[in-house]
User: What shape does this take?
Amino acid sequence: MVSQSLDVKPTHARRLPFPRLAAFAERVERAPSLDAPVRALSNIVVRALPPRTRLDDALHGVPFGQPAHPALVRLPLGCWTSAVLLDFLPGARFLPRAQRFPAAQALLAAGLAAAIPSAASGLADWSALHRHQQRVGLVHALAQGTATVLFASSLLARISGRQRSGKALSLAGLTAATAGAYLGGHLALRLGAGASHAEPIGHLVALGWQDICPLDDLPEGRLARRQLGYLSLVALRRGKQVHVLSDHCAHLGGPLHQGRVITEDGQACVSCPWHGSVFRFRDGSVVHGPATARQPAFESRVTDSGLVQVRPATPQRR
Ligand code: FES
Assistant: This one.
């Protein structure tokens, strides 16, 4: 028998055009030296933004049904990029010099104003992430903070008549902002910050009513975990009524069955044990963030033989 040795090379080193960027982001994830500043900043943010307040929910994006930060960051980045384009693109020369620089200054100032809500929403989301995500988020925030300082310096330079310095500072700011945006993408798309982590029940649950357990097996008024095929459910029994949600929290997949039953506006809700998101049992809607996506909910019924059956609830049926 001939044995073959396989020459396995790291695939990302061959395929990615910028392997060092990806490797750098992965190194940041695994850098415990960032933990002390992460803890310090996290404590400041949590003290400044107490959870379950209107401001905290708004910064997370609860009223919009998705995180607010990705939408808000487009404003400063768009303004700043446009300012740099006005500075450097030959096409912008159609504007008289006297108009080109005030236009760039106005864009820089608008970007600085828009950076405030963008940073606040980012910090709110960041404070409720896992540690490896927070490490990447910290470096992302440092890059964007550096970009903000550079653009502010550029604006001051232009106002004081130093146009050449202003242009150079803007270019440096855009470089820092682009590096920060790369880490933001890594955080959102590779590490799943901001995406819904609830199971896609439409793909995992068969059509029609499905048995989960006898009613008598469910404790009264307490959370219980039940399994439906691959899917984990959290159930709350109130007399003969049973509320059922998907168990993995939409925020970062926390186990809702280990959370607490609370009442909000007279309705039964579950509070996630990891970061305190609150979901209404009736329909899975978000009462408080950091989660912004609705928790998948189930309709339930009890058969004559005392079996609890569920099926995915749809917006039409709710
Ligand atoms: S996992 Fe973060 S609130 Fe549930």
Residues 97-126 form the longest helix (30 residues). Residues 1-6 have pLDDT under 50 and may be disordered. The chain is about 45% helix and 15% strand. Strands lie at 210-214, 223-228, 231-238, 241-246, 260-264, 267-271, 278-280, 286-288, 297-302, 307-312.
